[in-house]
Amino acid sequence: MSTSASSHPVGEPSATADTAADTAAGAVAAAASAADAPASQLSQVKKVRVHHLVGAKERGEKLTMLTAYDAVTARILDAAGTDMLLVGDSLGNVMLGYDSTMPVTLDEMVVATRSVASAATRALVVADLPFGTYEAGPEQALASAARLMRVGANAVKLEGGRPRAQTVKLLSDAGIPVVGHLGFTPQSVNKLGGFRVQGRGEDAQEALLADAVALADAGAVAIVLEMVPAPVASRITQAVPVPTIGIGAGAGCDGQVLVWTDMAGMTDWTPRFVRRFGQVGQALHQAAQDYNAAVQDGSFPGPAESFEA
Ligand SMILES: Nc1nc(=O)c2c([nH]1)NC[C@@H]1CN(c3ccc(C(=O)N[C@@H](CCC(=O)O)C(=O)O)cc3)CN21
Ligand SMILES: CC(C)C(=O)C(=O)O
Ligand SMILES: [Mg+2]
């Protein structure tokens, strides 16, 4: 949430440390009006809970979600005021070097979820159920979801619509908040026939709407919409009482999600729906080059980084 000015990573100066003397008058005015703007109710909560999600939708406050796969990154994204951290099965292609999300195991998701949960003080932690760990039915899904909840997940996410409704209901009844995922569902890429937009055309649009309503009726606390035409995503958003979180689904959704490495410019691969908000890959490359050069020319370590006798 952009209005969150209260949380800063440890060691980073707060905005109030800037003095008027070194700031242009226009910037002072802008900073003052930003400080005067009412903070969103959600940005003030100590720990985001699932009941806050529908509250944010009702108040028209946009929800933010980023993926995270480890503690060091989760700590930074959490401190920046991200509402939800998704331990995505994109772990497979992003962090583990796999070609897709298909090979990701529940054991791998457990390790990543434990790490992210250990670092998330405010953000709601949502963990993906990986391919093959829930589709057989509610009992399989409960056993898998319980493993993720035991290591600190606050909710689980699973892909699919009406065929998943019974599973969503059982998990929900068992006290496990479930986030749905509709549109382009990567775990079904072999059936969908490629990485393509879903919900184009009247029949596909109606099917998507029926899936979203079924998930909400079954107790889902939010629904991710991936690569769905913006007008279709807006219609679904208006039709369901729970927040929609879009990725390639336009600005009409109640929130947005991106893979953090895409968002931060950690890699070169950027599908159309990604905006790069940083150049972290380039910054890391530069830091490693500077380190290598300093070791090679003998300037690192210096006296300050060495111990006296
Ligand atoms: N790094 C990363 N970012 C993601 O957004 C992401 C993952 N990994 N892994 C899991 C899923 C898979 N996703 C994908 C995978 C491929 C495309 C893709 O190839 N998009 C192209 C072509 C789309 C088209 O056919 O028009 C694009 O340019 O958007 C998009 C999303 C989204 N998710
Ligand atoms: C792209 C998001 C929604 C996801 O499911 C993942 O990162 O695994
Ligand atoms: Mg996923």
What does this structure look like?
This protein has 309 residues and is an alpha/beta fold. The chain has one domain (35-263): Alpha-Beta Barrel (TIM Barrel). The protein is built from twelve helices and eight strands. The chain has helices at 25-36, 50-59, 71-79, 91-94, 106-119, 138-150, 165-173, 189-192, 202-218, 230-239, 260-263, 280-296, and strands at residues 63-67, 84-87, 124-128, 155-159, 178-183, 222-226, 244-247, 255-258. The chain has an eight-stranded parallel β-barrel with strand order 1-2-3-4-5-6-7-8, surrounded by seven helices. Helix 10 links the parallel strand 6 and strand 7 (244-247). Helix 7 packs parallel to helix 9. The protein is globular and about 70 Å long. Residues 1-23 have low confidence and may be disordered. The protein binds 5,10-methenyl-6,7,8-trihydrofolic acid (MHF), 3-methyl-2-oxobutanoic acid and magnesium ion (MG). Residues 90, 93-94, 101, 186, 195-196, 259, 261-262, 271-272 line the site of 5,10-methenyl-6,7,8-trihydrofolic acid. 3-methyl-2-oxobutanoic acid binds at residues 67, 86, 88-90, 101, 128, 224, 226, 247, 257, 259. It comes from Actinomyces ruminicola. Its cofactor is Mg(2+). It catalyses: (6R)-5,10-methylene-5,6,7,8-tetrahydrofolate + 3-methyl-2-oxobutanoate + H2O = 2-dehydropantoate + (6S)-5,6,7,8-tetrahydrofolate.
